[in-house]
Amino acid sequence: MSRKKNLINKNKEEMCKNRESVTTNGRAAFYACMWDDFRQAAMDCGWALALHGSLTSDMDIMAMPWTEKATSADNMIKYILTKCFVGSHIAKFIKTKNEKPNHRVVYTISIFADFYLDINVIEL
Protein backbone atom coordinates (compact mmCIF):
# COMPACT_ATOMS: atom_id res chain seq x y z
CA MET A 1 0.00 0.00 0.00
CA SER A 2 1.25 3.49 -0.73
CA ARG A 3 2.30 5.89 1.98
CA LYS A 4 -0.60 8.23 1.11
CA LYS A 5 -3.20 5.43 1.48
CA ASN A 6 -1.68 4.40 4.81
CA LEU A 7 -2.02 7.97 6.10
CA ILE A 8 -5.64 8.19 4.91
CA ASN A 9 -6.59 4.91 6.58
CA LYS A 10 -4.82 5.94 9.80
CA ASN A 11 -6.69 9.26 9.85
CA LYS A 12 -10.03 7.52 9.30
CA GLU A 13 -9.40 5.22 12.25
CA GLU A 14 -8.49 8.16 14.50
CA MET A 15 -11.61 10.09 13.49
CA CYS A 16 -14.06 7.24 14.12
CA LYS A 17 -15.67 7.02 17.52
CA ASN A 18 -16.38 3.88 19.40
CA ARG A 19 -20.07 3.17 19.75
CA GLU A 20 -19.75 3.51 23.54
CA SER A 21 -18.54 7.11 23.23
CA VAL A 22 -21.59 8.26 21.25
CA THR A 23 -24.25 9.65 23.56
CA THR A 24 -27.66 11.17 23.00
CA ASN A 25 -29.67 13.63 25.00
CA GLY A 26 -33.20 12.32 25.46
CA ARG A 27 -34.51 15.77 26.38
CA ALA A 28 -33.17 17.34 23.21
CA ALA A 29 -34.80 14.60 21.13
CA PHE A 30 -38.10 15.10 22.98
CA TYR A 31 -38.05 18.86 22.41
CA ALA A 32 -36.96 18.50 18.79
CA CYS A 33 -40.03 16.37 18.02
CA MET A 34 -42.27 19.29 19.00
CA TRP A 35 -40.31 22.14 17.42
CA ASP A 36 -42.05 22.33 14.05
CA ASP A 37 -45.52 22.34 15.65
CA PHE A 38 -44.50 25.24 17.90
CA ARG A 39 -43.01 27.14 14.98
CA GLN A 40 -46.10 26.66 12.80
CA ALA A 41 -48.49 27.69 15.58
CA ALA A 42 -46.49 30.85 16.25
CA MET A 43 -46.38 31.70 12.54
CA ASP A 44 -50.19 31.35 12.42
CA CYS A 45 -50.19 34.23 14.93
CA GLY A 46 -47.66 36.31 12.98
CA TRP A 47 -44.71 35.41 15.19
CA ALA A 48 -41.31 33.84 14.45
CA LEU A 49 -39.49 31.56 16.88
CA ALA A 50 -35.81 30.77 17.29
CA LEU A 51 -34.10 28.24 19.55
CA HIS A 52 -31.56 29.36 22.12
CA GLY A 53 -29.66 27.08 24.44
CA SER A 54 -28.59 23.48 24.68
CA LEU A 55 -31.98 21.77 25.26
CA THR A 56 -30.42 19.82 28.11
CA SER A 57 -32.79 20.99 30.82
CA ASP A 58 -35.51 23.02 29.11
CA MET A 59 -36.34 24.41 25.70
CA ASP A 60 -35.37 28.09 25.50
CA ILE A 61 -37.22 29.87 22.71
CA MET A 62 -36.96 33.46 21.51
CA ALA A 63 -40.18 34.84 20.02
CA MET A 64 -40.53 37.98 17.94
CA PRO A 65 -43.51 39.52 16.11
CA TRP A 66 -42.90 38.93 12.41
CA THR A 67 -45.87 40.36 10.54
CA GLU A 68 -47.92 43.55 10.70
CA LYS A 69 -50.89 41.58 12.06
CA ALA A 70 -49.04 39.71 14.81
CA THR A 71 -51.21 38.92 17.83
CA SER A 72 -50.25 39.86 21.36
CA ALA A 73 -47.61 37.68 23.01
CA ASP A 74 -50.22 36.31 25.44
CA ASN A 75 -52.49 35.26 22.56
CA MET A 76 -49.60 33.65 20.68
CA ILE A 77 -48.67 31.61 23.77
CA LYS A 78 -52.28 30.54 24.31
CA TYR A 79 -52.58 29.54 20.65
CA ILE A 80 -49.41 27.41 20.84
CA LEU A 81 -50.83 25.67 23.90
CA THR A 82 -54.18 24.91 22.27
CA LYS A 83 -52.63 23.77 18.97
CA CYS A 84 -49.80 21.68 20.39
CA PHE A 85 -51.15 20.19 23.59
CA VAL A 86 -54.29 18.34 24.60
CA GLY A 87 -55.62 18.46 28.15
CA SER A 88 -56.58 21.19 30.54
CA HIS A 89 -53.46 20.79 32.72
CA ILE A 90 -51.33 22.17 29.88
CA ALA A 91 -53.46 25.28 29.35
CA LYS A 92 -51.63 27.28 32.02
CA PHE A 93 -48.36 29.13 31.96
CA ILE A 94 -46.35 31.35 34.25
CA LYS A 95 -45.42 34.79 32.96
CA THR A 96 -42.41 36.40 34.69
CA LYS A 97 -41.46 40.02 34.28
CA ASN A 98 -39.22 40.37 37.31
CA GLU A 99 -35.50 41.03 37.03
CA LYS A 100 -35.18 40.35 33.31
CA PRO A 101 -33.00 42.75 31.32
CA ASN A 102 -34.24 44.83 28.37
CA HIS A 103 -37.96 44.40 29.15
CA ARG A 104 -37.71 40.67 28.49
CA VAL A 105 -40.74 38.65 29.54
CA VAL A 106 -40.44 34.90 30.02
CA TYR A 107 -43.37 32.54 29.64
CA THR A 108 -42.56 29.31 31.45
CA ILE A 109 -44.71 26.38 30.37
CA SER A 110 -44.59 23.06 32.19
CA ILE A 111 -45.02 20.29 29.62
CA PHE A 112 -44.52 17.16 31.67
CA ALA A 113 -42.78 16.45 35.00
CA ASP A 114 -39.62 18.58 34.78
CA PHE A 115 -39.81 19.31 31.04
CA TYR A 116 -40.35 23.02 30.39
CA LEU A 117 -40.59 25.60 27.65
CA ASP A 118 -39.19 29.06 28.34
CA ILE A 119 -40.48 31.42 25.66
CA ASN A 120 -38.76 34.80 25.81
CA VAL A 121 -40.33 37.96 24.39
CA ILE A 122 -39.00 41.53 24.45
CA GLU A 123 -41.87 43.87 25.30
CA LEU A 124 -41.61 47.27 23.68
How do you describe this structure in short?
By secondary structure, the chain is α+β, with helices and mostly antiparallel strands.
Description of the molecule:
The chain has one domain (25-122): Beta Polymerase, domain 2 (2-Layer Sandwich). It has helices spanning 3-15, 26-44, 73-84; strands at 47-51, 59-65, 94-96, 104-112, 115-122. It is α+β, with helices and mostly antiparallel strands and 124 residues long. It has three helices and five strands, in the order ααββαβββ. The model has no long low-confidence stretch (mean pLDDT 82). The relative contact order is 0.14. Helix 2 crosses helix 3. The protein has a five-stranded mixed sheet with strand order 1-2-5-4-3. 35% of the residues lie in helices and 26% in strands. It is elongated, with a radius of gyration of 21 Å. The longest helix has 19 residues, at 26-44. Strand 1 and strand 2 form a beta hairpin.
